Amino acid sequence: MVDDPTVVFIDVKILNPGQYEPTIIVALRLGKEGALNPNERFELTFSDDTIPRNFKTAWLGALLLALQKTEIYSPLIICTRTPLLAQLLITKRLDAENDMANPAFSLLNAAIAQLNEWTQKVQFKHILHNLASVNSDSPLHESEIDTTPDIMFYNPGILLRTGTQRLFSRILKMKYTSPYRKSSFVNVERVRDTISEVANHTPSNAAIWKAIRSRTFPVKIRDLLWKCFHNTFRVGEFWDHIENLEKLGECPICKVPETLEHSMLSCSAPEREMIWLLTEQLWSMKFEAWPKITWGLVLGSNLMRFQTKNGKPMPHKERLFSILLSTAWYTIWNMRVERRIRTPGKQFEVSEIHNRWLKTINGILQRERILTDKLKFGSLGIDKQVVLNTWSGLLLDEDSLPDDWLKERGVLVGILPMKLGVG
Fold first, then answer.
1. In what helix (H) or strand (E) does residue 123 lie, and over which residues does it extend?
2. Along the 423 residues of the chain, how does pLDDT read in single tens digits?
3. What is the pTM of this model?
4. Which of 81, 125, 239, 268 is placed for a possible disulfide with 249 were both Cys, Cβ 3.0 to 4.6 Å?
5. Which residues pair with 257 in a beta bridge?
């Protein structure tokens, strides 16, 4: 005689999504139909700390927790408000269990192995009214999910016919552990601490690395960002252990060890000081209170967040800030390279510094105008309203321009060039 099925209601909520360590809260209510146990709440962690905490892994973890709390000899009905589990484990199971490059692959394997071990029928039911609630007043318990599957009930690999060259390449790369780079780790932590302090949100590692690949930046700036994170430039300590070249590690102007941070933020070089003043001047044409610039903010400029007094996000202000900040230190770095390497000892005139920065920022503006041509650039293009919102209020003779000035020739930022020879 088959027992009455056990019914399990599952509810999941992720607190602080997108943060460094989001919290997964799971609510379970299980028992026989008509005789359900009280609502229980758990804070989930995984024994495998490489598993990301997102929507998919939260539901798979909740399913594993529910299976661990139920007898395997009983028929089971899993009730959820999302069809995700049914898709992963039934309708799209072949695709899911052969996607070895998925960061949640080990968790999915553990869930499939647990279901394979089940001796009775298991059903997934999509419901509208959930009897389990993460917002209940029931006590919150901690629960670590063991993601190690029973080797008798899971497939150790994937089907060869389901793979592609791209998938196999990704799998091979996953087998090699990325080398630990102290400089990269320190810079990531500095960005996280800075953004947490000034913008009141704590970005994850993935969010930080993704931010430097943003199409808001031209390719050259993205490349410079990546190299700054990994400290690949031959500055400062790089020269300490090279005989007869130790002097190259010292800033010739300030007579202190030269670092990227020093070159960008504290060096007495006239180009550094003037470019930051020009950047702040352009910013003040549209907004007040230019933030205090730190090295963490330079590297994490695309993670900065601004809000109105009512708490409403200001994406155009965030975008302008990342553009101005990145353009400033990109120009400072190029001029530093010219002064130290291409033409050692060169002194820049005030007019040259002013005009070079102005040419760079106007070049960024022209790039954005061109990229609004969706017919030409397709998915790589930029929405024209985004560009209008970002740059409006900063343009030269803007009152004489039409509302949609993207197709107008000679659109420049509202700072005039300086006559050569000044300074």
1. strand 122-126
2. 457 889 999 999 998 876 777 899 999 999 887 788 999 999 999 988 788 888 899 999 999 999 988 888 889 999 999 999 999 898 988 888 888 888 888 888 889 888 988 888 999 999 988 899 999 989 999 999 888 877 777 777 788 887 788 888 887 877 777 777 888 999 999 999 999 999 988 898 889 999 999 999 999 999 999 999 999 998 988 888 888 888 889 999 999 999 999 999 999 999 999 999 999 999 999 998 899 999 999 999 999 999 988 889 999 999 999 999 999 999 999 999 999 988 988 899 999 999 999 999 999 999 999 999 989 999 889 999 999 999 999 999 999 999 999 988 889 999 999 887 655
3. 0.75
4. 239
5. 250
**Helix, coil or strand: residue 84:** helix
Amino acid at 162: T
Structure tokens belonging to residue 71: 């007898």
Query: Residue 347 burial (CB < 10 Å; 0-12/13-18/19+)?
Result: exposed
Query: Phi and psi at residue 41, in whole multiples of 5°?
Result: -125, 140
User: 409-413 long-range contacts, Cβ below 8 Å, gap at least 24?
Assistant: 411/365, 411/366, 411/369, 412/362, 412/365, 413/282, 413/358, 413/361, 413/362, 413/365
